[in-house]
Amino acid sequence: LEKKNRLLNPYERKVVAFHETGHALVRLALPGDETVHKVSIIPRGIGALGYNIQRPTEDRYLMTKAELLNKMAALLGGRAAEMIVFNEFSTGAADDLAQATHIARTMVTRYGMDEALGQVTYDSERPTFLGQPQDFGLFPRSYSEQTAWQIDEAVRELTNQAFDRATSILEAHRQLLDDTAQKLLEKETLTADELPSLDEFHEINEADELHRKVG
Q1: Per-residue pLDDT tens digits of the chain, which is 215 residues long
Q2: Which residue in 44, 139, 169, 186 is deepest, having the highest Cβ count within 10 Å?
Q3: 45: which residues sit within 8 A by CB, 6+ positions away?
Q4: CA 88 to chain centre
Q5: Is 186 a catalytic residue?
Q6: How far is CA 100 from CA 137, 162, 167, 190, 214, in A?
Q7: CB within 8 Å of 42: residues ≥ 6 apart
């Protein structure tokens, strides 16, 4: 539920506006099976100071590596926007970082999506409680310290690449970022028809492709 009685100071409100706009623009710029339905800076629930609502365009049961990488970039779009505009990070990206890290680690340890580590599964699905893995000490690690180090490096590389990709997209469309965030500050909530259209991202594919070649 929205918490309209939770008041943010002007600076925090601006940070949240750019953060949520960053998420939305990166998601809109990249191909995927979800569309941005609504963006808001009205606090919601216990801890969320703003939110993006995305809706799938179709039922999906599989995701490709490219789609997972796009999802990670969108998750880190808010953090990237903060760095571009304010030249520092806030604590508002904690959940985004957790989700992106989880995707990256799952790609590496369960889906065999890291070339250096090969077509190997290093972690099996474990019982969960309230969304958190619960192994009760029954699932000891079955790989060496060296492999553990490689896994950590692969996860770090994937998340860093996702952040850099989000940053390059938003830097290429800085004016669009500023204009959309300002509109969000004024209206507090933007629906899909008030957000930038795909036509406004006509340069995004070239910028993203250049980043991937350089990276």
Answers
A1: 445 555 778 999 999 999 999 999 999 998 876 788 899 998 875 557 888 888 776 777 889 999 999 999 999 999 999 999 999 999 989 999 999 999 999 999 999 999 999 898 887 655 555 555 555 555 566 788 899 999 999 999 999 999 999 999 999 999 999 999 999 999 999 999 999 876 666 554 555 555 555 44
A2: 169
A3: 1, 3
A4: 17
A5: no
A6: 25, 9, 15, 25, 22
A7: 2, 3, 4, 50, 188, 189
Catalytic choice (2, 12, 20, 203): 20
Amino acid found at 9 = N
- Contact 21/176 with Cβ under 8 angstroms? no
Distance in angstroms (rounded) separating the CA atoms of residues 58 and 103: 21
Q: Is this prediction's pTM over 0.85?
A: no
**CA–CA separation, 204 vs 7, rounded Å?**
35
With b for 16 or more beta-carbon neighbours within 10 A and e for fewer, the 80-114 pattern comes to bbbbbbeeeebebbeebeeebbebbbebbbeeebb
**Amino acid making up residue 156:** R
Place of tokens 């790609």: 107
